[in-house]
């Protein structure tokens, strides 16, 4: 009987060891499989990110083109354009033309050239390459700014408007800008 108990004990210990080996081996296989899956997911996420970044860049290009098209139409309701002017499609920038981005602080200022309102900031203007233009930037409560810009590839213009004094009408620099 003692021998039988000893044999059963050995079998039980062997069975427990075998079960432990199977469980830990299975866990190791699952861990390896999960790490492999995570690596694949990480690669997929990087590819998706690259695709999304390319799409964002393409959309930014489209926005720039649309801004340029809209710049040819002018800006606000105070503009005195005829119906004929408003329905004429804007001219496309062609060979020898560049886009100049005009921004102001604060934004929403009217941009004028030769007495004609071109639009409100931020604005992208198509111009002939090398052309020099004098632009007037106007916003209520701020001093009118007259700036000169030469149209080159990648040209941009950022105008910081100065507040008008309530008493004298003189321009004041706003410290919050």
What is the element layout, followed by pairings?
Layout: H1 2-71, H2 83-87, E1 97-105, E2 110-113, E3 116-120, E4 123-128, E5 132-138, E6 145-150, E7 156-160, E8 163-164, E9 171-172
Parallel strand pairs: 1-7
Antiparallel strand pairs: 1-4, 2-3, 2-5, 5-6, 8-9
Describe it:
A hairpin with a 6-residue loop joins strand 5 and strand 6. The protein has a domain at about 70-170: Immunoglobulin-like (Sandwich). Residues about 75-95 have low confidence and may be disordered. The strands form three sheets. Strands 3-2-5-6 form a four-stranded antiparallel beta sheet, with no helix packed on it. The protein has two helices and nine strands; from the N terminus they run ααβββββββββ. The chain has helices spanning about 1-70, 85, and strands spanning about 95-105, 110-115, 115-120, 125-130, 130-140, 145-150, 155-160, 165, 170. The protein starts with a helix and ends in a 5-residue tail after the last strand. The chain is α+β, with helices and mostly antiparallel strands and about 180 residues long. The protein is rod-shaped, with a radius of gyration of 35 Å.
